[in-house]
Fold each of these.
Amino acid sequence: MDTSVISAFAALAGAAIGGFTSLVAALVSHRVQAKAERLAHDQLRRQELYKEFIEQASELYIHALQNDKPNVSALMRLYAEISRMRILSSPAVVKSADQIVKNIVRAYLEPNKTFPELREMADSGLIDPLRNFSEACRAEPSLRTARLAYEGRAWKTQPVLPWCFHPRLRRYTSRWAYCAFRDRAFTARKRVRARD
């Protein structure tokens, strides 16, 4: 074979390999970025749901301590929030939310509390029925993972690289493709951190 044909074939092969590796790098970084966005979106949905539930439950609990007549429409809104939690949350969170609603119904059945009785409840810690719920929300695995990702502990300083970008094999691949993958992964991480 002629040396010019061999060198041209080698150049074409090198360009094809470089293009293929940059394509693979772009696909991998896009997949990682999409997963991070999905995680952040799910976390935001759950946080909003928990915030609404805590606000409604605390208002209804105070109403239950001071009144004998139940607010049925507010109770139904709480049950609607629990149904939304059944779709998005872990069973521990749903169980503690259900327990809160049962405590509210039980408080409606008890006699009205006076201010000194409320102070005694506050001193003993009985006036905070949402503590177990908030602890269950905080311990939820998906929220904890998202929180760690936000703090930068879920991934190492370098992204997980495909085999073709391994530091020992890097000399066999195109230097341009490796730099393009590294820069895209770094930019995606910066965007996710900035958004959170």
Note: The longest helix spans residues 3-66.
Amino acid sequence: MAEGSNLSPVLEIANRQELEDLKPGFHLAMAGYPAEAITSGQLLHIAATPTFAAGMVTAMTDMFMLPADMAHGHLIHHNLPSAGGASGSPMIGPSGKVVAFHNAGTSVRVQGVQGRIPSGALKNYGQRADLLLDLIEGRAAAVVEADRAYWRQRTAGFKRGIEVTVPSIAREVTAKLYAAGQLPENMAPVLISQDRFRLTDADKSTKKVPELDKSGAIVTKEVSQRQKIFPVKLAGGKTQLFIAYAESRKPLQMWLLSGKDQLAADSVAPKDRDAVPMHAGRLRRRWARGSSLRPCHLGPAPAGQGRVSAR
């Protein structure tokens, strides 16, 4: 800490003038509770011991990781080690005041190893403390509204998730079918149709489902869901790939119905993306991120009619 620092039990947030002094090379310290894949992580609920780390600011950008002026450079890149559980930890400057809050890290996943593994590059992130000052001063909503034009300008050239994820899934499924000998040739997927919709309260229904409570007893819980049904025609000799893409990574379920008969549905847990083609009369539920249904021709399948139900 800087000589003469007068620290109190309550951490003080740096003022806006002090935050303007943040730049690469600025010293930082952080105390938090990293728990993910940490040997002692399971004991934190018994007696939590904070972990201290020191490092520095390595870069400053806007929230899109692009170079920015002071007004929009809210993302602090730093090299303090971290793991899951440390998010929200205050980051302290040499004055002893809070200059940022740790909120994200760079990690990798290894097959067969549970959890995320922090990257040795130590490329981690914090959000500048004036975001909290805006909340305290009651001006956060106005700041967000004023920044919308900046966000639109900065992201104008970005591809949206649906523009990247859907073609990627289609290519991946096509390659797997071809490798498995289920396609006569490695053909490009053909878009048949797409639809964009928003589920509203008019699409809402409830049902009762059994579940286990904390004691292990089976209880009945009422669950709300929203659902839409889309008629589709299945062409003979073609495999149909149905992809549902939901905004904000909302979980989706899909079924293939023929009249009142359910021909197929997945039973796997929600995940970011999954696609299995309807082949030889079968369709499984797709999990992806977005709100469009995109049936694509991929290979042989019997002709018929059906309905896709998306929830």
Note: Residues 16-155 form a domain with the Thrombin, subunit H fold (CATH 2.40.10.10).
Amino acid sequence: MSRRLLTPVSLLLCCSALVTIVAAGLSQDIGFRDPSLVATLALTLAKLAWLCHWPRLARSMASVTVACLTLGLLSYLLPEYWVATARWRAIAAWLQPGTGLEDWRAPLLATLCLILLGGAQLTGRRASLGSPMLLGLAVLMWLAQLDVGIMPATRWVIDYTAAPAALVPMGCLLAAHALRLTITFIAERQLLVRPLSMALLLGGLALAFSQHLQFLEDRRLHSVLKEENDRLADNLSGEVLDHLRAMRRFVNGWRLLDSPPDAASWAVMAEPLYRDFGYFVNIALVKPDSRIRYVYPMDAANQRLLGIKISENQPAGRPAQQRALIDHQEAITDVIPLLQGQYGIIYYLPTQIATGRFIGASAMVLSLQALTDTLTETVDAQRTRLELRQASKPLAILGPGDGNRAWANTAQIHIGDHPLTLTTLPSRLRLLEYHARLPAVGLATGLGLSYLLFLVLFSHRHLAIQHRLLHGSHAQLRREIKARSRLQKEVEWLARHDELTNLANRRMLMETLKAQHDTRPLCVMICDLDHFKRINDSLGHPAGDEYLKRLGELGEAVASRAGGLFARYGGEEFIVLLPGCDTARGLQVADELKTSLQSANLQHHDGEALTMSIGLTALEQGPLDIATLMQVADEALYQAKEQGRNRIVSATMPV
């Protein structure tokens, strides 16, 4: 897609997202109360402002949205002992009465997706700030909401995914931003491919690890709630056994009396039992004819029960009444509606006095609702709903009405021969309080680390490319420096040497002389080839050049053995500089040089041998005057020429 089409397509996607949001907001089912929908709307408007070249407005809207989403994210991450869930709900109610925490914060994955998308908008198309990575993580969070793979119960505890009405515009907004980043990706793909792929892999692993932690947290929370349910059932079962033993002790206590109890003695004996087991509605003495003789406590409701025939007023308990009153056996009714208007169980215990006289049955009316209410001492009834059922029929209910049946736990208890089911249903508030923050913290931390990994890898990749380019530049520069150094050395060598003979030239000779200004004795000799012009004229200049080269090799060898310097002074003239040599030693070296030349068998065109004239002088003492030294040697050479050539003439330095 060409760059010219990117902006119109992005505008079209943003407009599609905007239309979807408005349609969902106007519907009665969703409305604009959905925080994820509102946040998506804000980011869509920020993207439109950016496309319309209003960057300040776009950044302001995106910054405010990201800040609000970050506050919502903190409610998922901060430990319960730092900021309690009840405190978050109180803040939500303070912001707008009647609202809860879920009315102000988006689901976890939607929150992360929108924060990352807002960060991508704020960083623009700058890869160095991690904009491609933020967008990639946002797409990952959006895809995770399509099928997060967690249990429905966990979805209820913490809302992970946004509604489809918010996911659709969120996807359009992601596509619009991705289109704008294609130019950056194409231009910098060498820098982005490896860091982006490795960092996104880490982000995916963080998401998978978070889901694993969530699975472990579900198991832990289910285990905690199951243990609590079993503990409550054990408490109820223990309570039933305790009050049954207490009732039997109560009945056995009448066997110590010789006469039937009166109302006062009945009240005295029943009062401790009623006080210790507060879930008894009353404790009554039923005469053999099924009429109630005494009842405790003697309140207004129980006074109306005196004298009534219970077999007629409570037919559901008639089998147990007959068994106790006729068969003189301990009996217990099924779960029946009590005369007080609630479900309960009545124990009928045959009662006799010391003489063996049967005086009736002690009836203990147990209210199941009151029995269930005793669990408030061991469970928070404000955050847990308790239900006591027989099959599917509810007998007693304790706690709030928002218990979550997906997290329900059940246990069996027996009252007599009647099995009842105790069900505990934690409220949403309790689940949020007990739910560990580790999965959400792990996910947020993993995403943060993957973003930092991208920045590190991108910077390293960028520096590696820059280093490679710089290394190439340095290599090229080193090659140029070496070439320049070589040329410089060649220039310097040519400046101090004769190009034809490779001997030291006049400049190097003068530098060496100056360097030897304190050396005594100092011998200098000037050598000149005799009739050298005839060689050039007869044999040609190339032959003359070869003769000069040969003489240079011979002279350099002789001078080197003597510890001196052999230099070409110009034309066919050569200079021998011998530091530390006096005149006698100089004459020996000069003679050796002449002998070497003769041995070389260099001849003129007519077969005559090539000869050399040498003028020599030595400075034994006194200061060095180069001009005088050279002049004296030159005069000696002149004398050698005058005396017939092919000879050595020495001259003394003037005092």
Note: The chain has three domains: 3-188, 232-426, 506-652.
